[in-house]
Amino acid sequence: AGGIAFLMAVNTGVTASIFSDFGPKHVITDENGEPTQMLAVSGAEVLTVGGIVNVHGAKEGDKVLTITLASNYDNSLQDGDLVSLDDMRGALSGFNGKQVKVRRFSLKSPSDAKVDLNDTGTKEMLKSPTSQVVANFSKQYDFYKKEFEASGKEGKFKEREINLFNRLVLDVEGPLDQWSSYQSGGLVNSVKQAITKQYQSFEETLVSTPNPQMMDQEAWMAGEGSWVHVALASALGFQEQKGRWPGLQSEADAKEFVEIAKGISEANRAVEGACWLQKIEFTMPSGEPADLEKVEPLLMRYSMLFQAELTGFCAFLGGAIAQEVIKKTGKFLPIEQWLHHDEPCLVSASGGGGAYGGTRYAHQASVVGADVMEAMRRQRVFLVGCGALGCEYLKGLALMGACTGSGSKLIVTDMDTIEVSNLSRQFLFRQSDVTKPKSTTAAAIVKGWNPELNIEALEKGVGVTSEDYFDDQFWSGLDLCWNALDNVVARKYTDRCCLWYGLPLLESGTLGTKSNSDVFLPGQTKSYNDGTESDANENQIAMCTLRSFPYLPLHCIEFAKQAYFGDYMEFAPQQYEAFRKDLPGFFERLDAMGEAEQAKALRMIKGYIKLQKAAKIDFVACIRCAFDHYCKDFITSIRDLVYNCDEIEKTTGKPFWTGTKRKPIEAKWDAKSPPPEALEYLYASANCYAFIWNVPYVRNRGAFEKQVVSLDLQVPAWSPPADGKVATEEDDEDKVDTAAIEAMKGELYGVDTKGLVPCQVHDFEKDDDTNFHIDFLAIGTNLRASNYDIKPSERSHVKVTAGRIIPALATTTAMICGLVDLEFLKLVKGLHKGERPLDQFFNANVNLATGSQAMNVFRPEPATKRQTKLPKMTEFTSWDKVDIEGEISLKALVEHLQSQYGGTVKRLFPAGHEKLAVFDSESVEKLNWKIEMKDGKAVIEPEEPVYKAWPQLRTAVEKLSVVGEGPTRKAFESQITTCAKSLQKVKDVFASRFEGAASEAYTAVARPSDEEAEKQQYFDAVQRKRKYVALQAHVVNGEGEDAELPLIRYTYRK
């Protein structure tokens, strides 16, 4: 009442309930929190509906305004949705700021045509004007229809409707003819429409919710929420009657509780649409009473554990209900009144907390039992990561009493240090902790909470470069691995370790209000690596768009980060220092780069040397360097582009600056009164260069401006470019002049590097507001936006985008971590080793922004079975391995695999390194090859494979047959003899390896060379501790099909 929302979250033993009431009229302005779509217009045409053209709500013959978009809209944009128009040019500028409704544009297509809109050719065709696209589809439609009519087939001609997701119909006011003036520009921004919802009170919904939502959808469909709802009402009834809540583990109270529940259920039964103990199937109430023999034990358990609280449930409820508080503002969709979750498998069969009664663990012990508490104290847990997730998990482990017994340990590792931006969600840290290591700081804090906690904090990365520390002994001594990571590569690595050592893995992740969690159980569930998640950016922007034709603020931000900051502040000093410190080494590494990268590196090094020759490196030099970039990036390069594209327009006779191609305008400059935006760029840029050259900053803006004016900086004279090259969509690569690269190499080879001034790389750091990084990116972004008449971006938006800041909320983190804490309790109970383990555990997928329908838990997927295509082992999972013990020869190893599992081994290679061959069947074949001179003739067997291996041999053999005695013949004979020796060496090396120990064959190919001394030492250190090597095999079956075996663990010493 009175506009006040009522929210409730309660944990009653192994049950949790959430209630949300925002009153009879709650306005939601943003129901999902997703960013609105900003879509660039690239064309506009007026079309007639009819034929194959279909627009919802339009009649045949109606005229519609159809716009073409530079990219596809997503499915959230529906018929009748509102968009706002912006950035319209010329006669259409009056539409800016107006909101209009949109409709989808679709075409009829024959079903048999099987049009694939993701096909490259189709994508290119869809870039054409809409009238041309319609004409192309019409031809296809007519062709298939004529074929159908000619075939004499019965029935209707089958067709389907295809939505073109880069087209929209705008319902604009006024005559449509005015849109014929469209040339370029235009943005369409989706608009979120407010919705109003009505909510009932707690008292009303306690009765009027017949089948309350459960997080477990299977339980909800079976009506489990109804008994939980009645139980909660019964607890309130018990309190009203007794003046207290049901006692912990009180059987007497529980019996009274059950009677109250029966009474409430019977009373509600008489009310239409009420919640009572009835049978529910597939979410539908049946009207028949539930089986009380099954329900009464549930009610008894609810009562006896009513006053118990579990750490995991408290974290889950705290995060979820805190997010509901925010929804009072109209942001996000509230939970649909009620949400319940129940975890009966956590309850101890024996009951009671035993010796733990009266201790800090009394509540938990009363639920899981004293034996599980003892197991909890003995746990050995490896927590990987100590950010937002890691802090929550450390809190949970400390409060649950994990790793507090003799021989137990909690190992936490994280290489990162604490940053200011972490403080909003990594709650263990304070301002005074900034710059300190995350792991050691967090460990000290939770140790203070629970002095019994046996915790070890490390600052090591977990991966292929730390296997000398995280070795077999380390992994074999763990009970489980617990990921708190934020990248896929590290997750995949820890998952591979868990697969190898047979350890359970707890996994979770968050993105704003969204989160997920997974439990991976040895031999039971699919693994993380069985999935397809990737860090790759699926929506990369074409470089030609960033470089020459931006049309969105995002394009300007990306270019400022990649080209301006990345090249000037990071790449250039890196290359210069490599050149200055090690000239020969620099040129050796340079050859490994692409030509475009080579040219860029050489140009930038030349620029750094030129700067030193011109004058002393001081702050004035930094200003001059900044001004050079200002002129190049925002004035002269713009002149070049406009000149070249205008020339293209003259040559072709076709308008060039159309659609998303905006004709840029150069930045302004006045040496006596520099424009404010130019001064801002010079200020940020010059101070960045001051860091690079280790000269004092000039932070006083007044003094800085005076210094700039005193230098009387002038834009260099400009002349039209000679090459006339412009990057286009069809030619997106950097164009390089190979001769120019070689000339620069020759010039720099002769430089005496001893006198060069050292510099330092300005590594990007988004959270330090004193380092000028975000200032530089913000002004660089907006100067480029000004060039192209694109809306400027706020500094905060530039920081989030350029800094790749992933939205993270304390609410989401607490909520998902609480659910994972509950899964940890199940592991401690050993439920993964009992009957039907998959029916005991939950994975979760939750979006706190979109209400209870998006708060789901579900059973883990069973282990993925892979078919081997081999007769003696038909299938396996990622958890399986082929174990071979005892040192044997490589030949014996290959023969063992072939006889044991069937098929033919083509290759053996170190696990994860397919390019390295420990064994290759082609090498066996080479043992029978011949290259020899016999009776003056060359004997080559088999010819084609030998000639492929030694191409020069073919010519020598051919010439030998026609050349008489003499020096020339001897030269060809010598070539053949040399090849024969080479073949014999190959045979000898392979035969030695093939007949020798398999472990030595592995070492011969896997061990780094002497030139990589550090890597070689690391390899040796790891292998000294290991008694085995891990191998993979490429196998073919008897039919010649590729077959598959699990990983091979070849244990060659005890």
Automatic annotation (TrEMBL):
GO terms, biological process: DNA damage response; ubiquitin-dependent protein catabolic process
Domain Ubiquitin-activating enzyme SCCH: 550-799
Keyword Protein biosynthesis: no
One CC-aspect GO term: cytoplasm
Pathway: Protein modification; protein ubiquitination
Residues annotated as domain Ubiquitin-activating enzyme E1 four-helix bundle: 197-264
Alphabetical UniProt keywords: Ligase
GO molecular function, a single term: ubiquitin activating enzyme activity
Annotated THIF-type NAD/FAD binding fold domain residues: 361-857
Record-stated family: Belongs to the ubiquitin-activating E1 family.
Name of the protein: Ubiquitin-activating enzyme E1 C-terminal domain-containing protein
Annotated organism of origin: Alexandrium catenella
